[in-house]
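Duplicate of earlier report; Transmembrane protein input re-posted below.
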Amino acid sequence: MVGWSSQAEILAGATAFMKLMHSLAGLYFWDFASSLDFEWAFITRKKKFTWPLIFYFAGRYCLFFALIGIRLTARTCSEVNCQALYTFNQLAGDAAVGLASINLSIRTMAIWSQSRWIAGPLVIVILGHWALILQGVLLKAEWVPGSGCAITHTNNTILAATFIYSMCFDALIFTLSAWKLAFKRAGTRSQLMKMLFKDGLIYFLVAFGANLLATIFMLLNWNSIMSVIFNVPAAVASTIVASRAVRRLNKFTTNGPEMLTTSATHSGLAFRTGQHPTISRNIGVPMQKDLSGGVHVQMQTFTVAEEEDQHSDWTQDGESRNCKKVEDPEICGAEIRADFKRPPY
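Output:
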């Protein structure tokens, strides 16, 4: 049986941990750099900044600086304050997980048209999540001569509770979104709804799997290194998938026409829900956009119901509603001769 608490296993685990961190940092830095055009669009004011994007940018940059801090702990040769450095890394990494869940929670609230019966409980769940996140940073680290910074103690109970809470939270978010998007009449489902369902499913599967793996190793508690070795992969996976979902939604609502209400914006969603089936035709309304790079025309789609006018005195067949059946052929229902008919125009 492997002695996981031995010094040799701890040093081997620390080496594997640093190699894994380097690989994850490279993956995240590549994803971060490849999506900088999204930030640049807001800096140059090509896109309008809205408040839900605060959580998107906060999650991206929290994990970005956390990975930089992890790399610093591996490359430093002189003695540093390991406790402060690891506390920052833990707080920023856990915050990225919490912010990823908030990004998907905002989408769920928007899908439910900001219903207070949905938004209120979700806000309470978010506050509980962050209460666990802030307690999970209580770890201990110290400088080991010849090896560098090393984690000596972690509160595995709080960390495991945080990741289990995250899994349940993600399951709740996905269930609420799926209930609103999937259980609708086939005629009322739009491409945007299908994209939201697909993105939500992918996020749930990736985040749930990563958090489950991290929780298993924390509950096994072989040693101080192995208990937290999969925490960073869970944060990286959740942040990447959640960030891509936010970018896809933002690009979709600005580039593609959809059947939305007039309150549709870049950050919110308001779908055509609860309407009775009607015969509709689409009217394209051109919307002028920035003309500096050419002419850009976007078609905004509305729905106009072709219903019979109930206030009209005549039916579609040309018969009067007010006429009663009488015997006089010259009243109401009398047949009009061909020579009196009005020529077509």
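Strands lie at 140-144, 148-153, 280-288, 297-305.

Merging into the original ticket.
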